[in-house]
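Researcher: Batch entry, complex prediction.
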Amino acid sequence: MWETIRDVATAICLVAGSLMSFAAALGMLRFPDLLSRMHAATKPQVLGLLLLLTAVALQTASWGTVPILVFAWLLQLVTAPVSAHMVSRAGYRTRHLKRETLERDELDAVVTAHSDRVD
Amino acid sequence: MRQATERERRVRHVKAVLRRRRRRFAVELPLIVGMTLLWGSMWIDFSAGNLIFGFLISLGIVSAFRLPPVHISGRFNLWQALRFVLWFLGDVLVASLQVFRLALFRGPRVRSAIIGVPLRSHDDLMVTLVAHTLTLIPGSVVVEVDRRSSTLYMHVLNVATDDDAESFRASARNTEARLIRVMGTRAQLDELKKEDA
Amino acid sequence: MLVVAAWISGILLGLATVLVIVRMMRGPSILERAIAMDVLLAIIIAALCVDMAVNHHTNHLAFVVVACVLGFIGSVTISRYVTDRRNS
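Model: Structure tokens for the complex:
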């Protein structure tokens, strides 16, 4: 009984986690510009990794591995926004934008006003 | 007479150095404890010997690689932190589903905007935490940070009208308010209460 | 039960890999290729996690942790070197 519940929960976590990876890849392919693709690359991964690590924790069923699983997730949580920020910043600076997909751009005025200062 | 003032000055100097060291140690202690726990969890071994070895290694790392000073408010509300974590996990779930939905049904036709949000707080730690949280919750990726006016410029997905932009700005300010309630300074908290009233 | 879940996950991850590689080939700029690499690494991590859960072992845990850091360092490094050449 207990085993069945555990296996069902693991199966759900595995499929949902893989679905999140699929969502990230789909967004990468279908979104129109670099900055929108950053959303797809960052967000589903965090939830996907959480679900998959939960599945691993359920199947190994020992408290010893839980801290390292939590640490792996926290590491992803801390690093994903930083790399997303760095890449989108470089993308904005080098004008890898599609102006027609942007409804408004409040940064543009600031950058042109301080183009000598902003670095 | 001259010698006495010399000695006094030296004693004062040593005292100041010790005080600075003690303060730095108080800031670095959580870091060292965290690194020790990490060492234990990497080996999947929490025995005393392993932990002591990990503690020595993290002590060495912390004293070899100095970090820039961080201003910690010293306040930490556990109950608010718990609420924040639950809210955050829920929002991460919503964010992933939103990206999935937009990728499936909207795809190349999705419209977005770059929106500037001025923050209340000016310390680096708080601005960093807010930017991190905003990147992970629905809708936004931080593109640029203006440290001088502590304004975050964010790329927001799926914005079509001015109302969308305004409601996003409000939700970003709300995220900052949640973080201030967890670990902001007293002054920031008072300001927040004044704003609510 | 778990085997079925592993098959479904495997198919989803395989499809995701194909989509990411298409983006990597098309990607107009190097930044797109960099984040496509990042997502590919995340898919590899996901596959390792599926393997660990289905076969009840923890052999790949260290690699999962290392791969998280590796993707981070890779994309940050590339974005540091992508600069606006017109001003300089």
